[in-house]
Amino acid sequence: GKSSRMGSDKALLPFGDFATLTQFQMHRLAPHVESLHVSCKSRAKFDFDASFIEDIPTYEQNSPLIALLSILNSLERASCVLSVDTPFVSIEIFKKLYEAMQPNSDAIVARSPFGAHPLCAIYSPSLKHSIVDMLEKNEHKIGNLLRSSNTVYVDFEEDAPFFNVNHPEEYTQAKGLL
């Protein structure tokens, strides 16, 4: 995303004992996954090593659908997706999402009392054609993709793990929750 509500790039904000929120997320998640990648428009803004998946360059917009298509094209398998600005989503949440996978599922999405969390989800490569069709129509709403796909929602009782850091006051609050 553009981090317009934050006023600066959220991915590069210091968090905890880490130079960036991105590094915080990588450090806490890496021990629990087979591989970990950072999806981004361009890796040039990062001054650390990681496995980066850059957005397909033919798309100039900042869009979660472009990022998702880039991820699915790169990995060619069902992939867990988590936005950098949700630093309290636990690996247990992804285990529960994984357990809900079915052979014909296109997406498995976390949902709390607040609502759906499409950037805390597992996506299948089966969505690639639908995403390309949407992007050709300049449609970037991930909710529309989910409504037109075989989406499984997994309900969680608490909103707290999905706390999203969008504004400066939320960033301050999140740092206090560490």
Strand content: 15-25%
Strand order of the largest sheet: 3-5-4-6
Sheet with most strands: 4 strands, mixed
Can you count the beta strands? Answer: 6
| Percent helix | 25-40%
Structural class computed from helices and strand pairing: alpha/beta
Amino- and carboxy-terminal Cα gap: 24 Å
Radius of gyration from the CA trace? 16 Å
SSE topology string: HEEHEHEEHHEH
What is the number of helices?
6
Low-confidence stretches: none
Taking all residues together, what is the mean pLDDT? 95
Outline: globular
Describe the fold and architecture.
The protein is 31% helix and 17% strand. With 178 residues, it is α/β, with parallel strands linked by helices. The strands form 2 sheets. It has a 4-stranded mixed sheet with strand order 3-5-4-6, with helices on both faces. A two-stranded parallel sheet has the order 1-2. Helix 2 runs antiparallel to helix 4. The chain starts with 20 loop residues before the first helix and ends with a helix. The model has no long low-confidence stretch (mean pLDDT 95).
Concise structural overview:
The protein is α/β, with parallel strands linked by helices and 178 residues long. The protein has helices spanning 21-29, 64-75, 91-99, 128-136, 142-147, 168-177; strands spanning 38-40, 52-54, 79-82, 107-112, 115-123, 151-155. Helix 2 runs antiparallel to helix 4.
